[in-house]
Amino acid sequence: MSRFEARPVPSRLMMLVSPLIAACAMLLTSTLLFYALGQSPLHAFYVYFIEPASTGYGIGELLLKATPLTLCGVGLAVGFRANVFNIGADGQLTMGAIAGACVALYFQNVESYWVLVLMLLAGMAAGMAWAAIPALLRTRFNTSEILVSLMLVYVAYLTLSYLVHGPLRDPNGFNFPQSRMFGEYAMLPLLVEGLRTNLAFFLALIAVAAAWFFCSRTFAGYRMKVSGMAGAAASYAGFSESGNIWLALLISGGLAGLAGVGEVAGPIGQLQASVSPGYGFAAIIVAYVGRLQPLGVLLAALLMSLLYIGGESAQIELQLPAAITDLFQGLLLFYLLAADFFIHYRFKPTFTPKPASPPP
Amino acid sequence: MSTNYLVAFLASTASAATPLILASTGELVVERAGVLNLGVEGMMLVGAVSGFAVTLGTGSALAGLAAAMLAGLLISLIFAVLTLSLQTNQVATGLALTMFGVGLSAFSGQSFVGQSVPPLPHLALPVLSDLPFVGALLFRFDGMVYLSLLIVLAVELLLGRSRYGLIIRAIGESPANAHAIGYPVVALRYAMVAFGGAMAGLAGAYLCLGLTPMWVQGMTAGRGWIALALVVFATWKPRRLILGAYLFGGVTVLQFHGQGFGLPIPSEFLSMLPYLATIVVLVLICRNPKTILLNKPMSLGQSFRAD
Questions:
Q1: Whole-prediction pTM value?
Q2: Fewest CB within a 10 Å sphere: which of A238, A262, B52, B294?
């Protein structure tokens, strides 16, 4: 009765094609949506997807926004492969930003690039520590890392809000909820003169390469893959489940914390009441659209970054609401999940068998 | 601390608990049927914005509540099609539903920011509502507070004592066996997901029609996720949701009453309490693996395909 049948082997072709199908479906939907909003779809399309990437400065912005998405996305992908669902990357990013900012503000008068190194390390450590809480509670008390990591996002936001309204507020800042601007030695150096892309993008590329190496060339990465694909097989083989959970959460937390430092020591330059427009959540989509492969995550982060920047220019030039970006992000993941159906199933053509031709 | 203050605190606890009860009851039924829908937060937001829009347009809160249920139901069907028909990963699809709901509600609610609607009418009985203390604590709420308790009671009876409840529990424990006996597993799961969606929509509408009669972007503030945690807290038993929801309702309103109680704590730390309490409660319930093993629906979160 069913018109679809299970494929004997998952289709490798569909693995690669399904993100493209999802992207096309999303472009089609966005065209219809632009039309419904009374915009010329072609013009809106140009403003949203082409214009941002058509100038050198635009490319720089694209890489700038892709940086936290890549860092968070790579970490999450490593965990998702082992069925460890850290969805609190935005909280770990926030804690990383706080720790980095504390170092920057404490060593305000130190003129050495060691300040920056210390900030990056502190940010990673804070992200890891924040992710260690769901890891500890999951391994010791069997609680869902999904719920715990998400609850800690709100706690991290509130901690940040407390700090910028209280202890870390700039005394000369006219009571704005933000810290002092960081000194020169606490800022990430720019990669190219005139663009805002900074060293963090380079770090993100290293993270992609390291994650690729970890996933495909190390035994620990292999163990995580097996646990994700066949939990029972992994436990028969004696692979430690709690080891995977710890590893997945520490890696993703550390990278998210690094992304947080990248934001405050990069485009923001100080601690503000909000340091992320939800990069940690968008990174979940990035991880899936990137097929949970480090290199795929990088490409997906660039696509998602285009969505953010396109959304900003659509807001300015076409007066479209900013929330359209969130809408597109959610749609993209829906389409991708639907398109993934064809990795495991194929269309079963129903044709009537021809009568066998008589032998000559 | 005056008695009046305590009464006000307890009364607002009931209001704060109501959306949690509604959303978690829906999710509990979904989970008992073996489906894990992490999209509660998104469905609540979509319900909230639809309920607000319709109430604003028609002037009828009843129409708003109905529209919210319909909106929650419709958006939950996206989740149902993906997970039940297309066999997608339930965790990923639920997260997608939440993100989509956050975006959709913010996008369509743009023009409602700053507008307000008349709050839901409150019960006013001739003598009872005017009684000191008892009146405020029992007879002066809006209808949804009472309705939410009735819904829990109805779900408790239907799930635990009726033939239909038995079938729902069977498809949650062992869909393959239920299918072999001849029950339409996928169709029933569709129905339960739709019920969960409608309840989440109703919960969202209560936030912007009952609790605070206005629309604020992202106004659920994690309540959908707390509702998910409440289902674990209740060990998948409906009646325990009431206790959990009122506990959390109390913690939620503590942040507004903290100053009144004379607590010298920055407001941010009081606002953290519901989230921290969720974590603590999860640890207390989950720390004994047997509690979870005995109560959690066996097939929770796993895809099922009939052929």
A1: 0.90
A2: A238
